[in-house]
Amino acid sequence: MDFPTFQAELRRISGHVQAFAAIGAAARLSQVKQQAHPAVEARLIAAVEAILPGGLDGLDAQQVSDALEYVTFLMGEATELFQTPDRPPGWVLRDPAVLRALGQASRQNVRSIVTLANDRPRLAASLAGRFLDVGTGVGAMAPEAAELCPSLQVVGLDIWEPSLALARANVAASPHAARVEIRAQNVTQLDELAAYTLAWLAAPFLARPVAEAALDRLAVALAPNGHLVVGLYAMPTDKAGAALTAHGSCTVVAMCGTSPRWSSNSVLEASSRSRLARSHRRVW
């Protein structure tokens, strides 16, 4: 590619970055009920309206909050990659704001599981037992699960201390803290037997050998007729998006190194080789 073409492409791409930031800025102002300088606010509203007709008008407070957390995480993730492209593989995010944003966005996973259980009686029954949150991060999913499922006991596992510190604080501030336990523990060292009715595995944040080992440990830790829900990223259909997510999003590129991206088929293949195939546990 010649330089003039390269510059033109950079300008085109920069427009998407600025549009994303404008949407996030509008969500932030909406959430805190804060007004910007009138001239800036007018231009911001016009920009968001041009990008997304209707803007944030049709969203409730929770949806605006979820959108803001998503933008905050992706902006922070991209900044971290830009500033430290020479970092080694491994989870290295330490910025509390970015970690919190990722965690808060993950609460939707619990809501999706609860919705999935509406017409699945066995899955619904598992929400009255014990829930293992593997890769609990800042502990956002764990209190959410306790809130939505009043009789559920929750255990969150993680090994990243910056996230665990935030998780402990989050759980301590929750009215459901008595039913939530946060542990600094590697899932590959899990040695409990038939202790959980439901488990969540955040597969994109685990290198494939670790995730495969986790499946074996979870097969033992889940009770008979227990359920394992595996979280995956959707693969973009465009060429650029697919290239960025072939090994993960910006953060996961560095985190997983050359580990291939998990897909639903690869999870099922791995589970068929694990103890899960010889158990009575279901994988979603």
Describe the protein in words.
By secondary structure, the chain is an alpha/beta fold. The protein folds into 2 domains: 1-75, no CATH class; 89-283, Vaccinia Virus protein VP39 (Rossmann fold). The chain is 54% helix and 12% strand. The chain has helices at residues 3-32, 38-51, 61-83, 96-116, 121-126, 141-148, 161-172, 208-221, 239-245, 250-256, 264-273, and strands at 130-134, 153-158, 180-184, 196-202, 222-231, 282-283. Strands 3-2-1-4-5-6 form a 6-stranded parallel sheet, sandwiched between helices. Strand 2, helix 7 and strand 3 form a beta-alpha-beta unit. Helix 3 (61-83) packs across helix 4 and helix 4 runs parallel beside helix 6. The model is unreliable at 247-260 (pLDDT under 50).
Feature tags:
284 residues; alpha/beta; Rossmann fold; six-stranded parallel sheet; 11 helices; globular
Shape: globular
Structural class: alpha/beta
CATH architecture heading of the largest domain: 3-Layer(aba) Sandwich
User: How much is the average pLDDT?
Assistant: 83
